[in-house]
Model the fold of this input.
Amino acid sequence: MPSLRKKVVGFMRQLSISNLTAAVESIGQGDHQNLQYPKTTQQELVGGCFISRYLNGLEKKQEGPPIIHGRSPEELPTKPLGDYDKNEKEFAAITGPDRGLTTVNLKQRHLSISDPDVDYIDILDQPDQNGSGMTSDGEIAGVSDWFNSHDMAYGIATTLYEKNPTNDCNNGEPIADCFGMIARPNAAILALADGVNWGPKASIAARSAVHGSIEYLNKALFSSAINSGVSTTRDVFIALLQSFHAAHSLILEEKGMLTTLTVCVILPLPKTASGSNSSSKKYVACTCNVGDSLAYVYSRKTGVREITRGCRDIHCMRDMRDALGALGPVAGSNPELKNLTLSMTEVEQGDIVFLTSDGISDNFDPVVGKFAVLPSNNGGSFNAERSGRTESRQKGRRKSVDHPQRSESEIHSDLPVVEAYQRHELTLLRMEDLLKRGVSGKGPPCNSAKRLCELVLDFSVRITAAKRRILEDTDLYYAQQKNGELVALSKTEQKIRRRKTIDKISMVPGKLDHATVVAYMVGSYKFD
Done:
């Protein structure tokens, strides 16, 4: 009779997107003898599982338009922008979770920061028409209605953490992520921040970052009262850098802690830039990010590519507990910008640009999903992900339960081994598979921003379901007396019992975190 570990290893090896739901639910059940193995199609028998097809060279990541990145606007090529109407009203504006960016900067304070090293477009030093620092009545960050979503411009956030039976609340509350987006007929601004660690100050930091950056960019790019002179991609990147200063300043004013931040601006390119024979309109996605919140493009032609890949070395194993950089008071009142990166790529009408927190992106990782393991010589690097180091920039979550000390290769010895760059490509291929083929594996392909958000969030919720079920076991929180009455355990005893779940937790897929995605389908929209 095979052991539970061997059953789960074989089980996860066969796991495909089409049977993900049944898989995670079966793993979480107490009756391990009746684990339901996923059905394998004839194609899978011939070609092998998803990971095997890739590792055997039967499946390749298709290349899309190039992604160019650098640390400053001078390191990137300058492209002229096409016509975009700065007076066009947004057709969608959305923020979250809850009230999102609208919960900070309630006095609408002016933000103005100069930097002698960068020639910023400092529009915020100019007085408003009424001579005050306030926006027009009813507007927050230049928008009057922040809860106006659209199928082509959508965002959503949730928690993947388990619910604590003693108080019926999810651990890790409040959600420390925040997103915001403004979509106009042929242009958009997307922003996403992930507060480092748990607690209200992490949430405040994320909301302040999104508010500060979007408020600045909305004025710099679209205010009819200000002649900002934005006509090239270089101008956009200068404005993006200045918006990060505004975001950091607002975090300090609101007394928030640390957060990642990724902001993407999508604007049209001139018609001549795409060539006279091209039938698709071309746009440019200009992105600035610090930390490990990432930006992607989904194209029906070329699949998923990561815009922010230049913010880290994809050929080296990363420490998943290290956000790599953060805004907020990392050292005194200074941020940590070691991986702040500017990136740009061309996108076409119908492409979907989307930003995710690591609660989404990490759950598509083949190692986190238990589809593959790291080489044994990387055990030290991988265990660094689990060490729970206390540096302020690191995302120290649950140390003993989610991150056991034994190596993955030791626990799942039968799984295929992947190098760092393969891990990155397989993450993109997993996303692509979901967006092209849906949960069933039979399609139809994703055709809206709203659908993309629903698909990737649903995937993350499902793949972490077994972990939540294990951690929500009442035996970890209560003791049953002889009369059948349940008595709450002490905090110390709860921790001891939770530590005993390490082996079980290590065998099931997923990473518990806050999970957020915001997406925009590129295009030129006309409304009556």
Notes: Residues 200-222 form the longest helix (23 residues). The CA atoms of residues 53 and 215 lie 46 Å apart. The two ends are 67 Å apart (CA to CA). Residues 1-48, 109-136, 379-406 have pLDDT under 50 and may be disordered.
